[in-house]
Amino acid sequence: MHIRLHPPPPERSALFTILRRVLCIENSGYSFRRLGGELQHAQNPAHAYNVYAMGMIQNIREYFHQRFLKEALHKPVPASRKRVNLNTSKTIGILFDATDQVSQAQVMDYADALRLSGKRVHLLGAVDTDHEDGSFPFPSFSRKQIDWALRPKGRAVEQFLETEYDLLVHLNPKPKLVLDFIALQAKAHLKVGPFLDQNIYDLMIDNPTCAIPVFIREMETLLHKTNTNKYAHA
Q: Is the distance from CB of 97 to CB of 172 less than 8 angstroms?
């Protein structure tokens, strides 16, 4: 299979420059000529092309997601901020990655413990699958409820965002685009989540390789010490 990819004509150079930036070709060192060479010598050129095409589509989706995220960051969610910590929080919203059954069980156990202490807990899980499974014992959304710019949609997301929380927790050691986007939109007096460059969370836990129980322990240590809505890092 012989593939030749020609550079664009001069009049389309500006558009080509934008596309190179969107597709991260400049940052990755990739070039269309290099791509053509790799496809030509690949054992399965069709598969290699599909993998590359899917990567380009994902880059485009993430590019526009970040643009919408920046726009949303300049439009603060109107909410009366009050000084809260874990003890004083009565209503708690928890966002989490519900793809893994072990993580599901750990989050559910923590939510049950909070309810036993008198808290009202609202859960929303992101399930990384195309199947819409209504069997979960918590509200959730799948990839089918995520639009082309990686923005979560659907009734479960809408209902979660309708509530105002004393404390909002993104209960995941690593950032997750769709859950960070929901956290930004949510109305909460205090937001806690994994470390990010964007100013979405008031308190951030910088321990991306830890297990969820460790994340919970570090978060609670921080929350028991704080009574503020200022930004801080763990």
A: yes
- 112 sits in which H/E element: helix 101-116
Over its length of 234 residues, how does the chain's per-residue pLDDT go in tens digits? Answer: 444 444 545 444 544 454 555 454 444 444 444 555 554 555 565 555 455 555 665 666 666 556 655 666 666 555 556 778 899 999 999 999 999 999 999 999 999 999 999 999 999 999 988 776 667 899 999 988 887 777 888 999 999 999 999 999 999 999 998 999 899 989 999 999 999 888 889 999 999 999 999 999 999 998 887 654 444 444
Q: How far apart (Å, rounded) are the C-alpha atoms in residues 195 and 216? A: 14
What the chain holds in terms of domains, given with CATH numbers, is 10-73 (no CATH), 91-233 (3.40.50)
- Which strand (E) or helix (H) includes residue 93? strand 91-97
Residue 214 — φ and ψ, nearest 5°?
A: -70, -40
Residue type, 178: V
